[in-house]
Amino acid sequence: MRIGLDIGGTKTDAVAVTDADEIVGRIRRPSGHGDEAVVADVVESVRELCAASDVSAADVTSVGIGIPGLVDTANGRVLHAVNLGVESLDLASVSSARLGVPVVVENDVKAAALGAAALRGESASMAYLNLGTGVAAGIVIDGAIWRGSRGTAGEVGHISVDPNGRVCSCGQRGCIETLCGGGALARAWGRPGSLPVRDIFDAADRGDGDALRLRADLFRGAAAAVRVLVLSADVESVVIGGGLTALGDRVGDGIRNALITDAKGSPFLRSLHLDERIELLPSGSPAAALGAALVGAHTPQKEIAAHG
Amino acid sequence: MRIGLDIGGTKTDAVAVTDADEIVGRIRRPSGHGDEAVVADVVESVRELCAASDVSAADVTSVGIGIPGLVDTANGRVLHAVNLGVESLDLASVSSARLGVPVVVENDVKAAALGAAALRGESASMAYLNLGTGVAAGIVIDGAIWRGSRGTAGEVGHISVDPNGRVCSCGQRGCIETLCGGGALARAWGRPGSLPVRDIFDAADRGDGDALRLRADLFRGAAAAVRVLVLSADVESVVIGGGLTALGDRVGDGIRNALITDAKGSPFLRSLHLDERIELLPSGSPAAALGAALVGAHTPQKEIAAHG
């Protein structure tokens, strides 16, 4: 049995996955904050999941962890996972020592990309576009995460598409993330409320001018990200997930309409049928945890020997 | 011996390549125009090259052809090669029947990408960015051309980076090609002369305002293309070629400076060291013809049987 964990800023999603890639158990629990709490979260999630799924700890062959932040996959180290209060943590080796099984750590967006591809049965070429606080994509080619040369594959959030756009947290102007990142939208909105993007949509529905502009920005930013992914890596489809997609069709239809509108004046764009090649990840999808389990199952043999 | 041809709008470059990927002969001759002239060009180029390189026709095991336009590689068909006056031509099968050897046809930019990677000894991950009349890139991953799902891999020329930019021939506004494509620059310049981009550079050197703006556009467009390639496919390096690079360092230094300037305000961009990851293809490089020869050498066995 392979276990996959998706450790988010507020909750951890854990799934038990058979050798046939079937999910046979799932639990969710609040995430910890800080190095020790994150490690305890891993150990406790595995224990709870085994109990809930009637899986013996001895039957667990691997654990994969998807986590936000910069991940050094070769060494299982997590860097700058700001939302989890982790600056640098050898998560794989510390967790593996506690659990007695091999542990692999992966960036959460890349894990979700792999999981989404598995759930769709699409292994040839797919991108997963994550619209969360920030914006990034994971690319899956021939059933494997596309890693690129230096870890910036799928970093479409920081491609500028407007030289006169808002300044991005990265220092550039007009990045895709300034248009469709939850953090950037909340800053541009600037009004109180715990769910700023939902507030923007509700206010736009009431005709508020600022909200209408920001909602349109979200749609055109996501549409730009889809175009970049297709016109560079040429993925067949783009699955869109992340916190902002909790708004469901209100987001999905808007992005689809933006793709259609942008293609109106361009026979070239129309020939790409981009509006038919996007799909929203269903709310509550276990894609990221499943992807983590799949990553974990590909533990190199030497690592199994080291911890076995 | 493998032969590679790069059929351009004005001239055809032909190389003879050993099994060790070494170029042992090269000729250049004017290109033909129209279906029959292009086929005759292929046959004549092979004949001349064999004579010049002291290679017997019987020793030629494959011919690869790089050609501008849309190429259906599976069927060896060329579509919409406007500069060559070809609308639809079964170039592989017709040429193969005349030459008695297997022939493979490939888009010229993709062939040049493969050839440039071979010349640099860079096989892991590289993009070749072609700044010609239009703008497109070829991506080489693990020594093979990255094809993507629908033939739009590397079509970075038609990613919009300015919603208020000039209208592109594709119908969108502010495409990278409107900034750094030779055709778009010539249209925007609008003055007589057979080498408009050179004229723009010369006029910019004299302080002409329009020319200064267009030259800056070229640099920022190419810099944007480099960023897109690194932040999507995450290639290690970007080799830049095409007609506009005939201006050598005047173009190369400008693109490098644009990458440095754009990164000034962004620690994220600075961390990518993009200015150190670009390189101009030397003038007269046989990259495209060599790449065509390499593509031709990978003829599927069934095709050899069919024409052998």
TrEMBL record, chains A, B:
Domain of life: Bacteria
Matches recorded under InterPro entries: ATPase_NBD (IPR043129), ROK (IPR000600)
UniProt similarity note: Belongs to the ROK (NagC/XylR) family.
PANTHER family: BIFUNCTIONAL UDP-N-ACETYLGLUCOSAMINE 2-EPIMERASE_N-ACETYLMANNOSAMINE KINASE, ROK (REPRESSOR, ORF, KINASE) FAMILY
Protein name according to UniProt: ROK family protein
UniProt source species: Microbacterium profundi
Source organism phylogeny: Bacteria, Bacillati, Actinomycetota, Actinomycetes, Micrococcales
